[in-house]
From TrEMBL:
Lineage: Bacteria, Pseudomonadati, Pseudomonadota, Alphaproteobacteria, Rhodospirillales
Role, per record: An essential GTPase that binds both GDP and GTP, with rapid nucleotide exchange. Plays a role in 16S rRNA processing and 30S ribosomal subunit biogenesis and possibly also in cell cycle regulation and energy metabolism.
Region (G2): 81-85
Statement: the UniProt record of this protein carries the keyword Nucleotide-binding: yes
Gene: era
Region span, Disordered: 1-24
Membrane topology: Peripheral membrane protein
Protein name (database record): GTPase Era
Organism: Azospirillum oleiclasticum
């Protein structure tokens, strides 16, 4: 069965053990009955809220999330449809705890996975106290996907702020024309012009958002920056390296899952992950000559994981063919996506 095919070229050995629970690395939050965080610093008049970042694919939502919280929690790539799941990034500004929700790009879905991603993005917006719509200002004009987002917000009677991103790439007069065009529907209360990459304008954006969140207790400890379990973050990091190092269509045919997570007494950790592809030919591409490609991907992922976890990481990557992973309910469940969306 191609399903079970293992790759030995990577130098990785499977230990054959049952999948370990990576729970040791998962963050948990202590909450009292009212749902508020206990034993954390809490200002006298706390404010707290969910801020959804939505927009067309590639607008820079994940880059902005990372810049807003000052740490990388969401993966970024030059390709569209990088983000597949809803990612939370948490930051404190003054008395306010801002819980930013990075969402998959919103576009016209074709495949089942696309539908689930777009549904997750809208769910993120619906649950939020505050919505920021990102637009890549370096595009030639306003695209259909962004028009659709603005129209739907208008239909729902929801207000949002407009965030024109990538201003490092455009001239000022273009920005003014875009601002005018996108504000015609009266959906946006404010327009911000930023560069998520350089950080230009991001501090102002943060301050304004913090000031507008509703009063309420903080929901996470002050130093927590995400709610994503480490196993998932680790898989996402490897997927980012796949996206960046493999070109053409292949990235969309691949997905990564963390199978086991084993902490050792000497402070190191062994993480085993499976890269699922849809065909044997794709497996060969991911492996590269003599396993050289997967090795480079693994090295890049390990370097980033070590910096993030501040411990030594042994990363084992296996490549398996699973023809229909895109339509496998189990994969969707692992990402928190709705299979029936
Ligand atoms: N020049 C420039 N590039 C940016 C900026 N913000 C993001 N990018 C680049 O735009 C590309 C897409 O960024 P992402 O953050 O992955 O975009 P996204 O909206 O999360 O994309 P999806 O998850 O696919 O919907 C990456 O190559 C980023 O480096 C910016 O302010 N300036
Ligand atoms: Mg993204």
């Amino acid at each position: 069965m191609t399903d079970e095919s293992m790759n030995d070229d990577t130098g990785a050995v499977e230990d054959g053990d049952a999948v370990e629970d990576g729970g040791a690395a998962d963050e948990s939050v202590a909450v009292d009955e009212g749902g508020a965080v206990v034993a954390a610093r809490m200002p006298e008049h706390p404010r707290c809220g969910f801020v959804a970042l939505v927009g067309a694919p590639n607008a820079g939502k994940s880059t902005l999330l990372n810049t807003l919280i000052g740490s990388k929690v969401s993966i970024v790539s030059p390709k569209v449809q990088t983000t597949r799941v809803r990612v939370l990034g948490i930051a404190v500004e003054g008395d306010a705890q801002m819980i930013f929700v990075d969402t998959p790009g919103i576009f016209r879905p074709k495949r089942r996975l696309d539908r689930a991603m777009v549904a997750a993005a809208w769910q993120g917006a619906e649950d939020a106290d505050f919505i920021g719509v990102l637009f890549d200002a370096s595009r030639r004009g306003v695209d259909e996907d962004t028009r659709g987002i603005v129209a739907r917000l208008k239909e729902q009677g929801r207000q949002a702020i407009l965030i024109l991103n990538k201003i490092d790439l455009v001239r000022r007069d273009t920005l003014l024309a875009l601002t005018e065009e996108l504000n015609r529907d009266g959906v946006f209360t404010d327009t911000f012009m930023i560069s998520a990459q350089s950080g230009d304008g991001v501090a102002d954006l943060r301050r304004i958002i913090a000031g507008r969140l509703p009063e309420g207790p903080w929901l996470f400890p002050e130093d927590q920056i995400s709610d994503m379990p480490m196993r998932l973050i680790a898989a996402e990091i490897t997927r980012e390296k796949l996206f960046v190092q493999l070109h053409q269509e292949l990235p969309y045919a691949a997905t990564v899952e963390t199978e086991s997570w084993e902490e050792f007494g000497n402070g190191s950790v062994k993480i085993s992950q499976v890269v699922y592809v849809q065909r044997e030919s794709q497996k060969a591409i991911v492996l590269g000559k003599g396993g050289s490609r997967i090795k480079r991907i693994g090295q890049a992922a390990r370097t980033e994981l070590e910096a993030m976890l501040e411990q030594r990481v042994h990363l084992m990557l296996f490549v398996k063919v699973r023809e229909d992973w895109e339509n496998d309910p189990e994969r969707f469940a692992a990402w928190g996506l709705d299979f029936k969306a």
